[in-house]
Amino acid sequence: MATLSAPLHGAERGQVTNLPLPRYVSLKAAEGNVRRGPSLSHRVDWVYTRRGMPLQITAEYGHWRRVQDRDGAGGWMHYSLLSGVRTVIVDEDMLPLRRQPDANAQVLAQAERGVIARLGECRPDWCRIAAERQSGWVPKAALWGVDPGETRE
Fold it and tell me: For residues 33, 34, 38 and 39, what is the CA-based torsion angle, rounded to 10 degrees?
């Protein structure tokens, strides 16, 4: 079980869940409608189609969460389409996954830009990720879906 520790001095909390805002989640479904507003009567602006895609929740309203992706695009999604499982997107092409959180450690595999990986332990500058039966440590700055000051056990 991962634990989260990040500076929360004066952090905003969701009115519905009382969880910190903003916070990261992932797309639980194979596809999810992104709407203009928090109800089924609002127009669908687009559809996310990558299961596990990391998203950032920025607001809550009833059963709806306002989310945004790494490009800053977003809208409202029903909470049932979202998961608390943490994932990240690799933002650097051919990112080396290393045995230890050290730039000189052995390279175990490489990840292409855009790969969605499961987020594991995070230290101040490194995170452990796993994707397609490969895992290793990568610099936190090469990922989207984890905050710079965030640590996880």
Answer: -30
Token digits for 111?
């990840």
Which tokens sit at 104? 């000189």
| DSSP assignment letter at 106 | P
Inter-residue contact 83 to 40 (CB < 8 Å): no
**pLDDT of 1:** 41
> Does 80 have pLDDT greater than 70?
yes
Residue 140, helix vs strand vs coil: helix
Q: Which tokens in the block code for residue 62?
A: 């009833």
Give the length of the chain.
Answer: 153
The token duo for 129 is 């990720």
CA distance 116 to 121: 16
pLDDT tens by residue, 13-61? 999 999 999 999 999 999 999 999 999 999 999 999 999 999 999 999 9
Residue 66 to residue 125: CA distance in whole angstroms: 28
Question: For residues 103 and 111, what is the distance between their CA atoms, to the nearest angstrom?
Answer: 16
